[in-house]
Amino acid sequence: MITNMVAEKDGYWIRLAKAEDVTNEELKLHRLALDVYSFNPSAEKVYLKAGFKREGVLRDAIMNGDKYADDILMSILEDEWRALKTNRNTEGDLQ
């Protein structure tokens, strides 16, 4: 499982996509899951751009200072990753 990551630049989603390549091609995983916190919407956008889908929300699951925040659960499945990889290679996004 990947933990919350600060997502400030497009370089992060490219590295994430390459990490997906390693997990799916070399480790032969069928499903890759992660958590992202609601106080980090830019990270969630990065994961969505990389092909992850929202699976659910653990409401008020963590403390962020003196306030509660949601823990957003996301994943990508092998067939979704393969379709995205084909599209990315065709479009030259990761070249």
Can you give a write-up of this model?
- The two termini are 26 Å apart.
- The protein has 3 helices and 3 strands; from the N terminus they run αβαββα.
- Strands 1-3-2 form a 3-stranded antiparallel sheet.
- 42% of the residues lie in helices and 32% in strands.
- The longest helix has 17 residues, at 10-26.
- The chain is elongated and about 45 Å long.
- By secondary structure, it is an alpha+beta fold.
- The protein has helices spanning 10-26, 41-49, 78-91, and strands at 31-37, 53-64, 67-77.
Radius of gyration: 14 Å
Low-confidence stretches: 1-9
Shape descriptor reads elongated
Alpha-carbon distance between the termini? 26 Å
Q: Which whole number gives the mean pLDDT? A: 78
Number of beta-strand segments: 3
Q: What is the strand and helix layout of this fold?
A:
Blueprint lengths: L9 H17 L4 E7 L3 H9 L3 E12 L2 E11 H14 L4
Q: Keywords for this structure?
A:
single chain, 95 residues, alpha+beta, three-stranded antiparallel β-sheet, 3 helices, 42% helix, elongated, disordered N terminus
Quick synopsis:
This protein has helices at residues 10-26, 41-49, 78-91, and strands at 31-37, 53-64, 67-77.
